[in-house]
What we know:
The protein contains 18 helices and 31 strands. With about 625 residues, the protein is of the alpha/beta class. The chain has two domains: about 5-310 and about 390-480, 3-Layer(aba) Sandwich (Rossmann fold); about 500-625, ANL, C-terminal domain (GMP Synthetase, Chain A, domain 3). It has a seven-stranded mixed sheet, with helices on both faces. A five-stranded parallel sheet has the order 7-6-8-11-12, with helices on both faces. The longest helix has 17 residues, at about 90-105. Bound molecules: coenzyme A and adenosine monophosphate. The site of adenosine monophosphate has 19 residues, from strand 26. Adenosine monophosphate binds near residues 388, 389, 391, 392 and 491.
Amino acid sequence: MGKYQDIFDRSIRDPQGFWGEAAEAIAWDQKWDKVLDDSNAPFYRWFVGGELNTCYNALDRHVEGGRADQVAIIYDSPVTGQVRKITYRELLDQVSKFAGALQGLGVGKGDTVVVYMPMVPEAAVAMLACARLGAIHSVVFGGFAPNELAIRIDDAKPKAMVTASCGIEVKRLIEYKPLLDKAIELAKNKPQHCVILQRPQAKATLKPGRDHDWEALTSGAKPAACVPVQATDPLYILYTSGTTGMPKGVVRDNGGHAVALRWSMENIYDVAPGDVYWAASDVGWVVGHSYIVYAPLITGCTTVLFEGKPVGTPDPGAFWRVISEHDVKVLFTAPTAFRAIKRDDPNGEYLKKYDLSGFKYLFLAGERLDPDTYHWASERLNRPVIDHWWQTETGWPITANPMGIEPFPVKPGSSTKPVPGYNIKILDPEGKELGANQEGLVAAKLPLPPGNLPTLWQADQRFKESYTEPYPGYYFTSDGGYIDDEGYVFVMGRVDDVINVAGHRLSTGALEEVVATHPDVAECAVIGVADTLKGQLPLGFAVLKSGVSTDHGNIQKTLIQMVREQVGAVAAFKKVAIVGSLPKTRSGKILRGTMRKIADGESYKVPSTIDDPAILGQIETALKDIGYGGK
Ligand code: COA
Ligand code: AMP
């Protein structure tokens, strides 16, 4: 038996022993009483009775242990033309002072803080400062519109908000302060304090009494010490798309999270303390939480925080420049980034300009790695290109090619094998386990390993309904796929109404809720259609109320603008077809699968349950008008 199989089997047979040993790599204020408490299933709790501080593990510990002068964060920002290196000592200083500043605003253990920041080191400082105080951060991705921010404010009820005056996209500057003000205006729950980082590119006007200038507040603050918390206390809430407009508040605990991330760095990514690790994502996404901030810092690595894009900042060589300039060992990003590079530099000319000798692995996740992109990347880079699958809910990979344990030959289209701790099974719709090569629903036998969501924020029932009640005894991933006869897992895509646009997870239900509010729209649907760059793009269908005579072009433009304003530019909602009716089954269910096939130009069968087959012809015509379909 190989090394992987031994380790995997033990993780399933003896999770207590396995994770108890892994937990030795973390500094505890008080050791746990029990590794796994399964007395209240499906709410599993890891390291019950243990106390620790995540910020201590990410910073103080390394400063005390000899890494004070090692660079903790390399901030590389082609959009502002700067590179800044922050050592562990400097980062600790900044974080403890900012924690002191938050404390001065009354933020303490168990309070929530919403962070709405661009990719600047202060975003990580804010997160770590919350962790230091035992406060719970909730980072909201900067590309979300005020309405989405307001929804999260109302759910998390933050005592304070942390933001910046602006974010910088490739071609435009985005002033965050008006977005923040609008969100607070929309929210029912008004936060008492907002801390604003003034960036030189745009100064925000502060509202006296509520708004505080980051610099002024922090310079006068007394550094705060680490507050020990229970392993099971929440470290953060991260909202992610579900099937409705109300996002799910994924909760992460402190203890299990630190243990799992630390373990993953060596065993999955083959990274050791001192290595330079770069997750080219955004702190607003789970990849950013886990692999820009927490995992590399807890491990004592140097993490790269990149404020730029794979292309256009300034060219498709941006990733290669960063890797060579900072001697990056591991790059982790989404396949869409590589599709963008491939589009702009198909022959990899920019690659030839840089010395990539220290670069060992490319890890990709966030969406399925299509075999074309895999081949392009592995042929150009000539080093392992690893697809690994995970979700906001899990916080770290579910399936991967474990580079630190036993590298397996790659099978394009597969994210390789279950990571130790994840007992992956394929189920049929009735919940029966399927055999090798049979496609079905991907599930994980409970308990999930540490680091996974213990519940949803103040929504235990929704947690059960979404994840553990559909198939009792299993965590339901909402992904479909199969396992081949060598144990390789192939994740083929979501089986619910969640779509993946440039690695960003979006709910078609949330987009539909916006489209439906247009006064002329009687009925609508939004589906995800294939896109060569972004993987998927949302495509809307609107049926107008009878008697509406306004020209269609105008309504289409308005609908696109409404989604941009209410959900955000990140939704990339750019196409809507105006149709006479939506195709439905006789029981009234919209035939989204058939509509998707027509839009993607795939052949399709007219479903036997369809109410009126003639509608499909109308859909084809409407889609052709906006450039979709073809067969
Ligand atoms: N703040 C404000 N707006 C933002 C934003 C932010 N933090 N991030 C993105 N946006 C805006 C963009 O400016 C763009 O607006 P536009 O419609 O005016 O052009 C829109 O949201 C879509 O952005 P994005 O998804 O980044 O698409 P893009 O077309 O600008 O770039 C890629 C395409 C592939 C280069 C880009 O998506 C990318 O780098 N993806 C990497 C994926 C990733 O990091 N995934 C995270 C999970 S690992
Ligand atoms: P998020 O919660 O934003 O990380 O999105 C999670 C979803 O992205 C998963 O449920 C999958 O549908 C998809 N996903 C992420 N990584 C992969 C991968 N490597 N292969 C296939 N799908 C993936």
